[in-house]
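Lab notebook page, bench 4
Experiment: in silico fold of construct C2
Operator: M.H.
Input chain length: 342 residues
Purpose: comparison with the prior construct
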Amino acid sequence: MDIEFHYWITGYIALKAGFSSEEAKTIAYASELVDDNDTGVKVKDRHSEEVYINFISQTMNILKPKKKLMRIYPIFHFVPGDPAAITARRKDGKMHILNTTPNSPNANTLLEAAFSSDEEMRLYRIGIASHTYVDTWAHQNFVGWYDYVNNIGLDPKPDIGHADAEHHPDWVCHKWEDNRLVKSVVDNRERFTEAAKCLYLQYCSYLAQQGREDKSGEWRNIESSLITIQGRPYSGDFIRYKDERIQEYKNRLDNWPDFDENIWFDEAIDTEVHGLKDSHEGLTSVLTIFKDEYFWKEGIQKENTNWYKFQESVKAQEALGIELLSPLFRQMGYDLVDEKYS
């Protein structure tokens, strides 16, 4: 899924489930930031010289993934589910131990852990786990690993995740074809509406356990609104009607601001630019000679910043994901722990 679901729809669902506006914004921002947290940085304390290193939760381009960071995919974007699921039936009869399937036990475990995490980190954990949870609908029938089972047609792109399908699995209200499947025509409106429903009910259940009003009975009205917002489905190689849909989410969210991936970072960190500001994409990222330096802002407690809490929450999901998925990967002769990255 892209920003339309991870930020706008997730925020709308969280608000309707009973989270406050500020809580819902934090959840939605953390959810989308999972896709934009693609750069490892070292942040220094000017006084103690202590260095903080973050973990990334996405590579810069899903269509051009970094092989050495493969573990990101099954932990944050392609959680392994049930290889024998009805929705995973293929024309060639193949199954894969890492196949992503909707609403899988592993994805539920990550979300449940977020709901019961430390209160200071909980909203960030919920946002991150929500991203992973709903991606099990969008990314179903792909594996977050390099494998020919992901191949669609004669596409030369690497068979990692849904690279061959490009962004078709991620677009709201989009119809496309996955010719590997017995049921080859895919309607993202059906998939995403089901994802929204399950996420909404998860939120309602959590909030009811916290002593807040249980709004699970209101789903039908929310579903109707989402279907109205999404409008007519479309097909083809270009996303359509996105601006119109986002304006409708804004109208229902009291004109929330557009997502800006730098807000939490800039609130917490000063960047000392040496020469030109570093680029983290393409050839210029390799040719940069004088690297920028990063420092915690003066007068703040880093532990209280949104960026730090988000990064610690990424690390927490990564640790749980390793614990959860290691038995599967050992069956493939692969040790996730050996692939530690920073």
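Observations: The radius of gyration is 20 Å. The first helix runs from residue 3 to 17.
Next step: discuss at group meeting.
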